[in-house]
Task: inverse folding
């Protein structure tokens, strides 16, 4: 896997984690 691909997947993974955290916060409210 190239460095560019690694960066791409890392950012996608982080975005998914952030979205999940936002959903959890909404459910707790």
Result:
């Amino acid at each position: 896997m190239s460095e560019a691909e690694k960066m791409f997947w890392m950012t996608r993974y982080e975005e998914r984690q952030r979205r999940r955290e936002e959903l959890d916060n909404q459910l707790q409210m």
